[in-house]
Structure formats: C-alpha cells, structure tokens
Amino acid sequence: MHLRTATEEDLPFLTDALLLAYDWTGAERFSREELLADPNAAHYVVGWPAPGEFGVLAEDPATGVPVGAAWARLLPADDPGYGYVAPDVPELTLGVVPDWRGRGVGKALLDALLAAAVEHGHRRISLSVEDGNRAVELYRSRGFTPVGRVGGADTMLREL
C-alpha cells in the first residue's frame, strides 16, 4: 500500500472509512445517510480538516484507489466524540476496506497518524473502541490504555 497525507478532497472516502469503522462487525449496522444524519457520527467528518486536524490515507499502489484512512479531530466539550478526553486531545478514527484488513494497513495508518500527531505538537491522542472489536489489540500494541467507558466501548488514550 501507499500512504499519503489526507486532504479535504479525500472527505468522501473519509466518510466511507467512518462507515467502515462504525460497521466493523461486517454487518451493515448503518447506512451512509443514517451516519451523516446522526450528529454524534457526522462530526467526525463534517468540516474536516479544521486547524490542527490531520489524517493519512492508504491507497492500493497499483490502482491508487483508497483502501483505508486514519484521521484526527479536535472536538469541543459541548460536542464531544465517543473517545473524547479534552478539547486539546485529538480523537482518531480509523477505517480499512474489508478486503485489505489483516494486511498491515491499520497498523501502518495508525503509526503514520501517531507520527503526524507529534509533528502537529500534540501530547496525547484518544479513541473509542467497542467491545469485541479486534482492533483493540492494535491499539494496545501501540500504547493506548483505557481511561474511561461509554456504553459498550472503551475510551483509550496514548501519551505521545
């Protein structure tokens, strides 16, 4: 795969990747329209990138077609994300196309996003992961630790 910095022009695929992250079980739990109609989900993509926000896109090197993305948002206390810790702690979202899962794409995206967070001067980064999502092992392997719980999901934090 080829990694590159995500841009505003990648927003359609970031929306697809958000849907992949929400539908991590493989069962379609939400449609794209339902996701964008839900303010708790839509705020992960609407208006991205705002100042201080960043992302990485993975592409199939043969076709240039996006196969995964990871990006970070700085959400305010009055509109927090599921993995919200503080307004100065970016929350990451990561989604990989099913045919590309288990091939190191998520790991490469996460590592690149962590490096970008450091480059942007952030000291911490957070996320939310639902119970049963095997991505939790990737997050733990990269130093994320649980710091809270919302419903059936852990909020995890990584010091940078």
TrEMBL record:
Residue ranges constituting the N-acetyltransferase domain according to the UniProt record: 1-160
InterPro entries found in the cross-reference section: Acyl_CoA_acyltransferase, Bact_Acetyltransf, GNAT_dom
One Pfam short name: Acetyltransf_1
Stated name of the protein: GNAT family N-acetyltransferase
Superkingdom to which the source organism belongs: Bacteria
Species of the source: Streptomyces chisholmiae
Record key words, sorted: Acyltransferase, Transferase
